[in-house]
Amino acid sequence: MTDIQTVAGPVDSSGLGRTLVHEHVFVLGEEYRQNYQDDWDEDQKVEQAVHDLNELKALGIDTIMDPTVLGLGRYIPRIKRIAVRTNLNIIVATGLYTFNDLPHQFISRGPGLLIDIEEPLTELFIQDLTKGIGDTGVRAAFLKCAIDAQGLTPGVERTMRAVAQAGVETGAPITVHTHVGSESGLVAQRVLAEEGVDLSRVVIGHAGDSTDLDYLCRLADAGSMLGLDRFGLDAFLPLQQRIDTLVGLVRRGYAESIVVSHDASCFMDFVSVEERPRLGEKWNYRLISTEVIPALLEAGVADRTIETMLVDNPRRYFEGARA
User: Fold this and answer.
1) Residue 57 annotated as binding?
2) Does the annotation list 24 as a binding residue?
3) What is the pLDDT of residue 323?
4) Residues 16-36: tens digit of each pLDDT
5) Please, which residues have CB within 8 angstroms of residue 108's CB and are 6 or more apart in sequence?
6) Rounded to the nearest 10 degrees, what angle do helices 213-221 and 239-251 cross at?
7) Distance (Å, rounded) from C-alpha 300 to C-alpha 248?
8) Total domain count, the chain
9) How far, rounded to the nearest angstrom, does the alpha carbon of residue 95 sit from its chain's CA centroid?
10) What share of the chain has pLDDT > 70, as a percent?
11) 3-state secondary structure at position 284
12) Range of the structural domain that residue 20 is part of
């Protein structure tokens, strides 16, 4: 087995249990929060997160993977406060979330640029994976990058290749935010493979926004796992269509290529509390446990198949070998 770094310390991969592969605890802009979030109550937000995650644990989920990286407000000291008060494993990531340009800290620094140095992004990602994030003592266990409708812009490509290089160097797996409308998962696979990444160690995030089984099977046939990871986010695809897509993939024999999640959070500043239902009335951590699994069983998906998607596939993502 393999030791997996969590916020509370290493856990053997055999002990990850039922795992949701794409959940955020907080999504926010720290600089914005400190200057403009007048109603922010740190203790209250921590209490709410502890409540939500303990509720999720009581529903039978043992681990969440939190791909909150640079660009999404990653702040590990706050996550540590929460982790010590829950038995749910929280696995955090390193990487950079951008659909277009790089942050100004990196625009002029890198190979062939004004400050001509080795790729600083790769160095930072490796540091987070091998030494720890800042002075928190917490190590990331996977990598995250993004490619959306804007496509492979120079900033996106540079980030993706840095993530790939860090993954090859450290053996850490990768999750990619993708955009199904432009089939950007295929572009991500090409770029990552060019850098030597084993595509079986890659989750194509938000693949579940698509009902195109042929596109999804192409991604899976190349080796990657399909992130059916936005259950409840009806603004991108209604719940029943997400369930039907999963069932269709299982019937085609792709259960070993599927991982699931909600892409939910305890708090996000993209939308207000009042606006959030517009994205999905049931968009929360609980939906897979309370509604999706019962719906899958009713559709004829076997218990063992559900365990494959929730337990075996996330474990294999980290271990790098078929179950």
Assistant:
1) no
2) yes
3) 35
4) 999 999 999 999 999 999 999
5) 114, 115
6) 50
7) 11
8) 1
9) 11
10) 99
11) coil
12) 3-319
| Pairing mode, strands 3-6 and 9-12 | antiparallel
DSSP state of 6: E
Q: Is 179 annotated to bind ligand?
A: no
Reported as half-sphere exposure (CB side, CA atoms, 13 A), residue 119 has a value of 16
| Dihedral in degrees, nearest 10, Cα atoms 20, 22, 24, 25 | 20
Q: 251, 283, 289: which is closest to 270 by C-alpha?
A: 283
Mean pLDDT of 125-137: 98
Q: Across the chain, how many H-helices and E-strands are there?
A: 13, 12
- Write the burial class of residue 188 (CB in 10 Å: 0-12 exposed, 13-18 middle, 19+ buried): buried
Span 116-127, pLDDT tens digits: 999 999 999 999
Report whether pLDDT(322) > 80.
no
Token pair belonging to 30: 């720290």
Confirm if 191 and 202 have CB atoms less than 8 A apart. Answer: no
Q: What is the CATH number of the domain that holds 273?
A: 3.20.20.140
Q: Is 144 annotated as a binding residue?
A: yes
- Mean residue pLDDT of the chain comes to 96
> If you ran DSSP here, which 8-state letter would residue 200 be given?
G
**Which tokens go with 160?**
């993706």
H-run or E-run covering 226: strand 225-228
282 labeled binding residue: no
Taking residues 87-104, report their average pLDDT.
Answer: 97
**Residue 63, strand partner residues:** 19, 89
Give the Cα-Cα-Cα angle 11, 18, 49 (nearest 5 degrees). 80
